[in-house]
Design goal:
Blueprint (H helix, E strand, L loop, with lengths): L22 H16 L23 E3 L14 H5 L5 E7 L7 E9 L8 H5 L5 E3 L14 E2 L1 H11 L8 H4 L10
Antiparallel strand pairs: 1-4, 2-3, 3-5
The chain binds iron/sulfur cluster (2 copies).
């Protein structure tokens, strides 16, 4: 139970004659406004201007990598979809037409709007088939457009393959990210 002596009552400040003119407060407010006027500009006029990206840890739109034979590198192990906390990866596996693997993804979809870009999928993938690129300016007019299917994800790979995306260097051995591959 709260005792009456535990209650602290705070009343309005007692202002004297000068205080009631609010000159001090007005001057302080103007000072803050003027301070913002001369502060270093932090906003950018996107898309004409862009902030430099911290590619070392940036996680953007996904891509599905191709192997050296230009086939989808994914082996449909479901590790990424199991690790995904947002449940936004949907895979349907099929029997592989190639002798070097058992399965391949007949269907592979990622809901880019549902994704929280945590990077768990790329960390979980045993064959480095799924990666998060540094691309961020993706747009769509409908939700359906933002569900990227296998072809779209491979297309992202085709457009970004010259850039090594961010991945955990301790696990992958990648020394740097966001630079063209050597
Ligand atoms: S980045 Fe995270 S939320 Fe997005 S698909 Fe990968 S595991 Fe799921
Ligand atoms: S992308 Fe990687 S983790 Fe996901 S199903 Fe394919 S091989 Fe497995």
């Amino acid at each position: 139970m709260i005792k009456p002596e535990d209650i602290i009552r705070i009343g309005p400040p007692q202002l004297d004659g000068v205080g009631r003119m609010y000159f001090g407060e007005i001057a302080r407010g103007l000072g803050i406004t003027l301070g913002h006027l001369f502060k270093k500009k932090k906003t950018v006029q996107y898309p004409e201007e862009e902030r430099p990206l911290r590619v070392q840890n940036y996680r953007g739109v996904h891509r599905l990598n191709r192997d050296p034979d230009e086939r989808v590198a994914c082996v449909s192990c479901f590790m990424c979809s199991t690790a995904c906390p947002a449940h936004c990866i949907h895979i349907e596996a099929g029997e592989s037409p190639w002798p070097d693997r058992e399965k391949y993804p007949v269907k592979f979809e990622i809901d880019e709007l549902r994704c929280i870009y945590c990077g768990m999928c790329e960390e979980a993938c045993p064959v480095d088939a799924i990666e998060l690129t540094t691309e961020f300016d993706i747009v769509g007019l409908t939700r359906e457009e933002m569900v990227f299917d296998k072809e779209k994800l491979l297309e992202v790979y085709d457009q970004t393959k010259q850039v090594k995306p961010r991945k955990n260097p301790k696990i992958t051995g990648y020394s740097y990210t966001g630079k063209p591959q050597q």
